[in-house]
Amino acid sequence: MLAHGDVRYAAAGYPNRASNDHMESSTLGRYRRMMARFRIRKIAVRHARSLGLGVAAVIGFLGIAIFVLMLAPDWFAGTKNLDAAQAGARQGVRTASLALLAGAIGVVGAIYTARGFALSRAGQLTDRFTKAIEQLGRKELDIRLGGIYALERIARDSKEDHPQVVEVLTAYVREHALLHDMSQGDPGPHESPAQSLHMSARTSTARLPTDLQAVLTVLGRRTLAHEVARPPLDLSLTYLQGANLQGANLHQADLSGANLQGANLHQADLSGANLQGANLQGGYLQRADFTMANLSGADLTGAKPAMANLTEAILCGANLTEANLTGADLRGADLAGANLSLAELRSVDFRDAHYDRETAWPEEFRDPQAKGLEPWPHWMEARRD
After folding, report:
1. How far is residue 137's CA from residue 197's CA, in Å, rounded to a whole number?
2. Model confidence at 368, in pLDDT bands (50, 70, 90)?
3. pLDDT score for 364
4. What stretch of H or E contains 375?
5. Could you give the CA distance from residue 205 to residue 16 in angstroms, rounded to a whole number?
6. d(CA 300, CA 260)
7. Per-residue CA distances from 47 to 43, 61, 119, 121, 275 (Å)
8. CA 269, CA 253: separation in Å to the nearest integer?
9. Among 363, 354, 303, residue whose Cα is nearest residue 333
10. Does residue 280 have a pLDDT over 60?
């Protein structure tokens, strides 16, 4: 009998997770090694900063001491032919300078207190990160979910740890939802559960296992303000059939070769994304943003990108048979070799879009140029010849 949390994997074509101890341990080891590299790097940076601050503090203390004991009295009170009044003035200056030194020491102490608090917080984040990584490798579904949402909290709390969290979560998806090549036969003992998928047994209504859906939800709502010149999400060659990515931010994500059949991408941001060769059959793509996305060779048979933004999208060789493109914006799109037969093209904006003689249109769509499309120059030259 399957344990709690294994039912969804088995129903979706995954093997029993309880029978994959070697896979679990290898995955956990990989996450732990990743965390060890992050920890070593952070510790080295932390020690270097602490050493620099310590040297600066010692130099500053010596400078203040010299000023208080030697320079300040001579600057602010006479030193020649001292009488009682001048000696008192000199002593007053020394007292005031000592008070200044005490204040400076207090400021330095406050700085080190703040530094200590920051180091303590960093240590707590590292401990939380380590614990969450360990939870990802557990067999129990509820514990894995706890690890996923713990990583999301860390990514929100720490801009420094945000890219590492994203890297771990995308690696988790690639490991557990990797497309299976049927020609390779049965999966070996080192492969992840998702590598044993039997593609022909899956249906368009299949749902992802709960933990994989949770990871995708977390990635889709990540804190974008923490991302500066970071590499795009790598979800290439993953099996995400039936995934719910409504409103997800997948800007410039790499989804090349991914199976998103029947996925919900309503109002998702896929601008600049790489969807080359992706399977989007029957996908719910209403109002999704595909601006400048690469959809060459993608399969959108029966998909519903109504009102979607496909401005300057690359759709070379894409299959849009029976796709509902009502009200879609395809200005400047590249439709060379695309198959739009039986597609619904009402109110589509084709201005400045390009096509060639390999582009297939619905029977009622007899004059593409009247719709604002432009044939590629090499086809025009062939027609003139």
Report:
1. 20
2. confident
3. 84
4. strand 374-375
5. 21
6. 10
7. 6, 21, 10, 15, 43
8. 10
9. 354
10. yes
- Model pLDDT, residue 288: 98
**What is the average per-residue pLDDT within 247-258?**
96
∠ Cα 217 221 224 (to 5°)? 145
Largest CA distance in the chain: 113
Tokens of 346: 């009402």
- In this prediction, residue 49 has a pLDDT band, given cuts at 50, 70 and 90, of low
Average pLDDT over residues 228-251: 91
Tell me the average pLDDT of the chain.
77
**Range 5-16 burial, b when 16+ CB lie within 10 A, else e:** bbebbeebbbbe
Two tokens, residue 134: 């360990």
Average pLDDT of the residues in 207-213:
91
Residues 6+ apart with CB under 8 A from 171: 30, 31, 34
Question: What is the model's pLDDT at position 159?
Answer: 86
Q: Which residue has the tokens 């040297």?
A: 55
Q: Which residue has the tokens 């896979």?
A: 23
Domain residue spans of the chain: 20-171, 232-385
Using DSSP, state whether 385 is helix, strand or coil: coil
Q: Please give the CATH topology (third level) of the domain spanning 232-385.
A: Pectate Lyase C-like (2.160.20)
Strand partners of residue 299? 279, 319
115: its two tokens: 């530094």
- Residue 27 to residue 21: CA distance in whole angstroms: 10
For residue 43, give the amino acid letter: I
Both tokens assigned to 64? 């203040």
Both tokens of residue 254? 């790499």
pLDDT band at 300 (very low <50, low <70, confident <90, very high): very high
